[in-house]
Design brief:
Shape: globular
Number of helices: 14
CATH architecture of the largest domain: Alpha-Beta Barrel
Oligomer: single chain
CATH class of the largest domain: Alpha Beta
Largest sheet: 10 strands, mixed
Length: 457
């Protein structure tokens, strides 16, 4: 196996390459995954594979097309490697599974250049999949197709159609994502009542090619349960807000949803009056939850653990620049919500609830790294989660949240070839993710140096 130079150096190159080269006439998009019988070998890795195994090395990873063919000591995997394989020496660099942001919004409102810039930054930052939690699916569907076939650089996109009560559809965001149509009457954003034909409603959502249905607001417990039951019958997961108003967090979990979003919404399980509507939320008694031992929340987490309900915590967004404000009252609310998010997320972790790593925002244009890095740092530093668990949350649990468990999320034989290569050990410091040199998504290489070049253009 001849060694080849490794072009994944993260330093800014003297000369920037042009767009990815393709054989004339092959018709392949510029960022397409490799062909089925193309082989690549990554030798000398220190591997954190996303399973319960500790990091180990040196390890060789063998790819065939977009799949991982073998992982192990070089002598063991060498028989799997044909002579024509491309070989890349990692020289002890650290490999982690591709990261997954389980809460993104790429088209509210639709802005194709902005969305493409976010997706480019994500994939060159090690993110190989995202969950889009309900937007204008006319655009999101095309973005998902474009990143999947390689027309543009970006992670795989798993997206949701939305269902909510009629009262929600005067929200201006619903008009932004239904331009040209009436909000609540389109397949990707439907108003649900007791008289809705749920078989048809779920079928319409499926027709958008959505990976799931998001249950959002102004639905009572009976309707949440009915939507979830019909979606399950049609093999569609439900991704829900943690409180749907008037449905409580416990009622949402009892309905059998796949995941719940926004850890701070779980505090409404302790509301002192019945929940009524999305716009009429009762005040939250932050002091009640400060010790991280509220018994009603503990019982809710026990139910989530028993049912395998994923918590898409979005814990760090309240501490982000995206929600920063110079208005004192808004700043105070953000600080209180950040503290509440940290306490409840730590309690969920202690209770054994699977936690995924969603953001619900993005860093500003021109920033070099995606918002997911900030969420992971918040989970470590403010919530007290071990770095190893946070990385599993961003990879293995992230795959579970998207419905791709057993397909991606870990670097093991048979899984999709989705991983990131780092110069420095992320287990020592979560900020070492910023030492990324290379992303491999579906076997396709995205060297960090190329991102710097594209930013210069």
């Amino acid at each position: 196996m001849p060694d080849r130079p490794d072009p994944s150096d993260r330093t800014r190159p003297t000369e920037c390459p042009g767009p990815p080269a393709r054989t004339p006439g092959d018709g392949a998009p510029p960022y397409a995954p490799p062909a089925e019988h193309e082989y690549a070998v990554y030798r000398g890795a220190t591997l954190f594979d996303g399973t319960d195994r500790p990091a180990r090395g040196p390890v060789t990873i063998v790819l065939e097309g977009g799949r991982i063919l073998a992982v192990g000591p070089d002598a063991e995997v060498r028989p799997h490697v044909p002579d024509h394989a491309a070989v890349f020496d990692l020289d002890g660099r650290f490999v982690v599974p591709g990261l997954i942001d389980s809460h993104q919004h790429l088209a509210t409102p639709p802005d194709r250049p902005a969305a493409e810039a976010v997706l480019r930054r994500q994939v060159y930052g090690g993110i190989t999949a995202v969950r889009d939690m309900a937007d204008d699916l006319r655009q999101v569907g095309d973005l998902a197709r474009a990143t999947r076939v390689g027309e543009i650089p970006g992670p795989d996109i798993h997206y949701a159609a939305l269902m909510a009560g009629p009262g929600f559809f005067d929200d201006p965001r619903t008009w932004q994502v239904s331009q040209g149509e009436i909000p609540g009457t389109v397949p990707w954003m439907q108003a649900i009542t007791d008289s809705t034909d749920l078989r048809l409603a779920v079928a319409l959502a499926r027709g958008t090619h959505a990976a799931a249905i998001k249950v959002y607001a102004d639905l009572d417990a009976g309707l949440v349960a009915a939507v979830t039951a019909e979606a399950r019958r049609q093999s569609v997961p439900i991704w829900a807000h943690a409180a749907v108003f008037p449905a409580t967090p416990r009622e949402v979990v009892e309905a059998g949803v796949h995941s719940v979003s926004h850890v701070t919404l779980l505090a409404f399980e302790g509301a002192t009056r019945p929940l009524t509507s999305y716009r009429d939320k009762p005040p939250v008694d932050h002091a009640r939850f400060a010790a991280g031992d509220d018994p009603r929340i503990e019982a809710l987490f026990a139910l989530m653990r028993e049912r395998g309900t994923v918590l898409d915590a979005t814990a760090g967004m309240w501490a982000s620049e995206a929600l920063a404000s110079d208005e004192p009252e808004q700043a105070r609310r953000a600080r209180d919500s950040a503290r509440l998010a940290a306490v409840l997320t730590a309690q969920a972790h202690r209770a054994g609830v699977p936690i995924s790593t969603g953001t619900d925002y993005e860093t500003a244009p021109g920033q070099p790294f995606p918002a997911l890095y900030e969420e992971l740092a918040f989970l470590v530093r403010q919530c007290g989660l071990p770095v190893e668990q946070v990385l599993r949350s961003a990879t293995r649990v992230g795959a579970l949240s998207t419905g791709a468990r057993g397909v991606t999320g870990t670097v093991v034989a048979g899984h999709r070839a989705d991983f990131a290569v780092l110069d420095e050990d992320p287990l020592r410091d979560i900020d070492h993710l910023r030492s990324i040199t290379l992303t491999v998504k579906r076997g396709r290489r995205f060297p960090r140096a190329d991102f710097a070049c594209e930013e210069d253009r």
